[in-house]
Amino acid sequence: MASSAVSVDAVVLRVGADGAEVLIHRRAAEPFAGDWALPGVLLGAGERISDAAIRAAGKAGVSAAAVDGVGQLVVFDEPHRDPRGPTLSISAWVAVRGFEPSDPETARWVSWEALPPLAFDHTRILADVRPVLADKLWRDLTFTAALTGSEFSVRTALDVTRSLTGSDVDRGNLNRTLKRIAVRSDRESSSGVGRPGALWRWP
Predict the structure, then answer these.
(1) For residue 193, what pLDDT is reported?
(2) Cβ of 161: how many Cβ atoms within 10 Å?
(3) What's the sign of the alpha-carbon dihedral 54, 58, 64, 70?
(4) Contact in structure between 199 and 189 (CB atoms under 8 Å)
(5) How far is CA 66 from the centre of its chain?
(6) How many other CB atoms are found less than 10 A from the CB of residue 196?
(7) For a FRET experiment, which of 6, 36, 67, 72 has its CA 20 to 30 Å from that of 22?
C-alpha cells in the first residue's frame, strides 16, 4: 500500500481589532492556484512539526522572529482531501506578533466571521480547530500567553475570548479566571476615552 504524504497546515493567529485573527494567503501554485488558503508545507524527513509550522507561516511572509509560540492541534486524514493524492494534514497554531502583510492581495488577516472560501479542506480545518483553540484559551497558558503577549488588557481578553468561542462572554467569570491564573499589572491601559482599564500580566 502506498504511503500518504504528510503536510503541516499553519493556523497563524494574532490579536487584532476583532480579537484573535487568522492569517490566510493566496496560493501561487496548482492545485487551487489563486485561491485563499492556510499556509502549509509537506513535512520534511526528520523535521519537527513545530519547525514545519514556522516554515509554513513563512509562505505567507511571517519571519521566524515574529513567532511567539507554536503548538499542534488536530490531524485531518480524509483520504481525498488533496487532489494530488492521499495527504494527511497536521494542523498547528502559530501565534505571531508585529507582522503585517506587505500586499493584502497575497496575504491578509481576517476575522473568524469574515473568512472567504478556502482551498482544500481548510474551511473545515478552521471550523474544527476553533473550538479546540477556545478550549485552550485560559487553560493552556503556553498558548494563551503566546497569543495575548506578556501584558494584556481586559478588553483584549474579552475580544479574544469572544472571537474564539463565537459567543458573548460573561465578564464576571472571565475576571475570576484572570484573578486565578494571571497577575494584575501596576500599569493601566488607556484608549484615550473614559477611565483607564486594568492590565494583566503573566506570573
Answers:
(1) 54
(2) 22
(3) negative
(4) yes
(5) 13
(6) 12
(7) 6
